[in-house]
Amino acid sequence: MDDALSHFGLSRTVTIALGAFLMALISLWTQGNVGISLADPGFLWYGTQRVMLGDVPIRDFMSYEPGRYYASAAISKAGGLDALSGTRFTIALFQAAALAAVLITLAQALPPELRGRKTFLVLAALTFFLWMFPRHKLFDIATSIFLLSALTWMIASPTIRRCFLAGVAVGLAAVIGRNHGVYGLAGSVGVFFWMLLSAKPSDVTFNRVLPWGLGIVVGFSPILAMLVIVPGFLPAFLANVVFVFEVGKTNLPLPVPWPWVVSFADQEFFDAMKDSVKGLFFVLVLAIGILGPIFVCVRQKIGHSMSPALVAGAFLALPYAHFAFSRADIGHLAQGIFPTLVFILMCLGVARRRWRVAGIWTLSLTSLVVVVSQQPGFPCRQPSDCERVVIAERDYLVPKHEGEQISVLRNLQATYGTNQQPILAVPLMPGAYALLEQRSPLWEIYPLFPRSEEFERAEIERIKRANPSFVLAQNLEFDQTEDLRFQTTHPIVFDHIQENFKLVESTAGPGYLVFVSKDQ
């Protein structure tokens, strides 16, 4: 197979990489100080802060796999940054590297006569950039891109060395998130099946699959080492894995927003059109995930050559469709769409000129319509809609509802807090601990799913040892579902709070309950 990667040219590669880093730098400069959510984004903020102070992810607090936290903590410490600004700088670096990787992969795979077509690559770059959200999930988006680039590189020239390094990439992906390891595993298996259609089984098995498998072990070795070396990490890790199987799902599902269920009568025309286009992207992700592997396998069987990037995109599209559909909102669609985007752009790259031009403009403009409002700086496009807050001696511009939440929390701390006692914020406010630079009394900093009585009793013991000065409890439905209130998912913990703390009037707002220690 011709290895186009070695003939692309160093100057072009450097130019594309510099362009990608410039886009990420501009984004950090213009949006890096905008928005602070104490909810899901606070999950990463808190985790980075705790790792910087010596805690271990999964063992000491609820978290994803440790990779993203140690990367953020290391870069934060190296740059002399606090956890929030350091995490955002780390995210920008991952965004730049991922954008460079996907653009170089795309540019190298295009037919030679298209490499000079700058408009195509510029529009592709803008499309990729637009889909790089939510900001706190850039680690997941970057990992999907790195996997795609690694598989593309392996397919282009499946030597023992490249198969080994592709396996390392799959193992490292699992260090960021075990789901990425599973997706990389599934995509790789598809690629090896595709190779079997034109290669000897013994060659694929011994010269490709075996070094790839060894690479996975090497890439996953940081977690393997932690399982052996770090006290308490092994049982915590196993319990975490077991819980996923007990729950039977990786997220709280939402109805898929198929385009044919959009009602034009109940909303403005533009909003309905935007929802329809969003639904079409879900259709594309699923359709390419199913049809893409069939397409490349048929072409391989009849002896037609294909771009390695097209094959990699085809076999990763369906695994990452699981990510998109696990919670079918725009944020999870963004985290699972990149293999699909690469597949579409590769098809457009070899299409006739009029189809290519129409396709790339359509893809770019529809992406703009659907996701421009999801960019970090969009809520504060009108300065009057936002206010400034200071965190770790840095100014941030936040929407007023976020500013109010921060103000309420700080006021409660000033009124009821002490230097010796932490606070307790449940259920979806891990950023509250990061804001006040405190350790959560609970292991489960983002409780969504019901837990066993044994688990809740263990959490109560942690509350007793911490002896929080006050409790801020969200008494809100999640996803408009009564069963997902904290008092329903964790009734024993909630009863303990009611019995051992006293409810007080506060300015926390509707849907929030404030309890204080009975000693106050």
Commentary on this structure:
Strand 1 and strand 2 (394-399) form a beta hairpin. The chain has two domains: 4-374, no CATH class; 383-517. The chain is mainly α. The protein has a four-stranded mixed beta sheet. A two-stranded antiparallel sheet has the order 1-2. Helix 4 runs parallel beside helix 6 and helix 13 (308-326) runs antiparallel to helix 15. The model is unreliable at 1-6 (pLDDT under 50). The chain has helices at residues 10-31, 40-52, 67-78, 83-109, 118-130, 138-156, 160-176, 178-196, 201-219, 221-229, 233-247, 269-301, 308-326, 330-336, 338-349, 353-371, 400-416, 430-436, 453-466, 486-489, 491-500; strands at 386-391, 394-399, 424-426, 470-474, 501-504, 512-517. The protein is globular.
Helix content: 55-70%
SSE string, helices as H and strands as E: HHHHHHHHHHHHHHHHEEHEHHEHHEE
Average pLDDT works out at: 94
Counting DSSP H or I runs of 4 or more residues, the number of helices is 21
**DSSP strand (E) fraction?**
5-15%
Characterize the main sheet.
Answer: 4 strands, mixed
Oligomeric category: single chain
Alpha-carbon distance between the two ends:
75 Å
* Gross geometry: globular
The neighbouring-strand order within the major sheet is: 3-4-6-5
**Number of structurally distinct domains:** 2
